[in-house]
């Protein structure tokens, strides 16, 4: 079984290295496949395949490999509308999965592979309207009992209305203030590799100005009607739902977070506030970055547990709450569980985003997937079409107003765009990436070629929605980029240059 252990560890290392670079522009460089393979071989050579610790590590590695594959396959096909062959060829083509068997059986997707002399099987359950959930410490019967799709809110019939209210788009030939030839060239370039053999795999690009889509392009077989995974862009949606509940008087961001496990006398975590969770300044010990010889907490959380919030809640403090900014996906899932605790049943909780946010915006494709405990994976698992994702970005550009109705509470957007005190470079607000720079040094901002008041959603594999308030501009890109620079930064610079060039020509 030594061979099985090597390939499982190799895939785990690959996943960890990629997730480590999932969101922020200052993230460490991704490990190359050759370096990952070398590391896995070294680990395999150092430990006997019959050693109990080595076998336990191999089992966890296989669980991660299968869990990530089954989850992506289930969601990409049954939520995203893709074919099995396309997912297998593009995301699940690792040699580590060459001997794995995958199966679709009605609403269950399973994967099996040999490990430690036996067979490991991982399954996911698909539920209409709320997507796929890994079956961890839960049965299909218990999860089906949580939710009845027939009781899900009716979605608005807006398909034939113009975007952003609906989904109809007529791209303009010319746009005042833009060199559209340059814009279209920039969009084309976002689908091309920026480095040799990068396999940039851009799947969608949209440019929105003055509330209208002025450029849009997809890579085959993706279309405007196919939902795509936003990964950590989901965090900002989780924050928006927090704002809605705060406006209802059900949450108070400056109060200690409602986590019963932290209420014991002497538990220093009891002072952690909701705001500190939103700011990623909880001070909790957590690994979002892969380091040699260990597995990142974010990977273990997503693929080895059925309760993503409890996984993080159990972590001890590493710093005084509020003192240190550290990007921690687990805190977003704690926020999601705090939201769930406000509802008397799972049905009402699962209906809440649709009733109070998605239906209001005409985001008819949006799906947030829960874990097996019944909590939305608010850190990572929302699918929506690129046009619907863009509507969410536009909501923030419009200060939380939509078609004359206030969706987010007054002041919530400004609050979200105020840097967390512990974010020394002004790089993070309320589950939102910023480009402000240090208070006394705006030139220290993470993206020096882009405006200081630009803010953005960001997710693993290069999901980005960039908002430029001064230009009334949104630039977004979705895809699966696993190495090299993200194309969205160059795309945004080029679109801004096309805008500036026209303005200068008319002066």
TrEMBL record:
Record's keyword terms, sorted: Signal
Pfam families reported in the protein's UniProt record: Beta-lactamase
Gene3D superfamilies: DD-peptidase/beta-lactamase superfamily (3.40.710.10)
Taxonomic superkingdom: Bacteria
UniProt entry tagged with the keyword tRNA processing: no
Keyword Transmembrane helix: no
SUPFAM superfamilies on file: beta-lactamase/transpeptidase-like (SSF56601)
Boundaries of every Beta-lactamase-related domain copy: 188-478
Signal sequence coordinates: 1-21
Protein name as annotated: Beta-lactamase-related domain-containing protein
